[in-house]
Design a protein that fits this description.
single chain, 339 residues, alpha/beta, Quinone Oxidoreductase, Chain A, domain 1, Rossmann fold, 30% helix, 27% strand, globular
Length: 339
């Protein structure tokens, strides 16, 4: 089968590899679509180090079961995955904190993922409820967003909100946050340097969109009488983004550094100033099993408009071009499909 293999930093290959062979209890999934995630782009750049190359990346997927050696899984079921395969027995797993499990194995991180024609879900993943099934009426163009939506819902439960929110970045995550926050009745302001992404944010309901200039920052501070109550950074948290987040948040407000940060990026805080500004600083990442189930329900109920998010589809044979498209932000969400 064809697959996109992440060999090492800055090196991807289109490669023919064997179709996965199943052991007792395993399931074989034929891919329909798999989204290119910002974390995969960060791994390719060398900004994050939690991948185990050589590996077939890809964890935002939709597919069909075509072979099952597990008694509880039927051929023909439409599925996606919880890509964090954890032990299921430790304190963290028992308390729905699988991402902190010391034995975690990531689909698309440590074992082959969805940038291929087929993917194997191990028996342990099925037994620990990491195979997520949906009715076949749910299109793959929506199902592939189940995992990123689950990440956003997890962050929504953790973050402190009041009346106003600034979202930094109008990629897929920023556009999902925009819709979730508008559902809560909040005023949402999006900062995004790319015009077509600002337009997408307006399409999904942002109250206003700004390019990231000092004039724009000052304008929003004036509109909100001192800054927003909450900042959600849904882009790469480098030093310039961190600076903007602190400029936009009011005293006593909350900043969630949701986006990835390049390895080695640091945050320097004057503790005396921090004490008197009263800022609440946090970082949400990944999801819980509960937030993925909530995400599944949102998708079943058509709660989120994914159409403005999914802008570019590429066949696997053009996988390298697809990554270039995602890297240069020519669309919003870039996805791969087998031919």
């Amino acid at each position: 089968m064809q697959a996109i293999v992440f060999d090492k930093t800055r090196q991807l290959r289109l490669q023919d590899i064997p179709i996965p062979k199943l052991n007792s209890g395993d399931v074989l999934i034929q891919m329909e679509l798999c989204g290119i995630c910002a974390s995969d782009l960060a791994a390719l750049r060398g900004d994050v180090s939690d991948y185990s190359p050589p590996i077939v990346m890809g964890h935002e997927l939709a597919g069909i079961v075509v072979e099952s050696r597990h008694q509880d899984v039927k051929i023909g079921e439409r599925v996606t995955v919880n890509p964090m395969l954890s032990c299921g027995k430790c304190y963290n797993c028992i308390n729905d904190r699988d991402k902190y499990c010391d034995s975690i194995v990531g689909i698309g991180h440590d074992i082959d993922g969805g940038y291929a024609e087929y993917i194997r879900m191990p028996k342990h993943g099925v037994d620990t409820d990491k195979l997520i099934r949906v009715p076949d009426t749910i299109p793959p163009e929506e199902l592939l967003f189940l995992e990123p939506l689950g990440c956003c819902l997890n962050a929504m439960h953790e973050t402190l909100f009041d009346y106003t929110v600034a979202i930094l970045g109008a990629g897929p995550i920023g556009l999902i946050f925009t819709q979730l926050l508008k559902r809560k009745g909040l005023s949402v302001y999006v900062f995004e340097p790319i015009p077509h992404r600002r337009f997408a944010a307006e399409t999904v309901g942002a109250d206003d969109c700004f390019a990231i200039t000092q004039e724009d920052i000052n304008n929003l501070i004036e509109i909100t009488d001192g800054g927003v109550d909450t900042v959600v950074s849904s882009t790469t948290n480098n030093s310039s983004v961190i600076s903007v987040a602190f400029e936009l948040v009011r005293k006593g407000g909350c900043i969630n550094f949701f986006g990835l940060s390049p390895e080695g990026e640091t945050l320097h805080i004057n503790l005396e100033e921090f004490h008197y500004t009263g800022h609440k600083l946090m970082a949400s990442w990944a999801f819980s099993r509960a937030s993925l189930e909530e995400s599944r329900q949102y998708i079943l109920e058509k709660t989120i408009n994914f159409e403005p998010l999914l802008t570019d589809k590429y066949p696997l044979v053009q996988g390298l071009e697809a990554f270039d498209n995602a890297i240069t932000h020519r669309g919003v969400k870039t996805v791969l499909f087998p031919q």
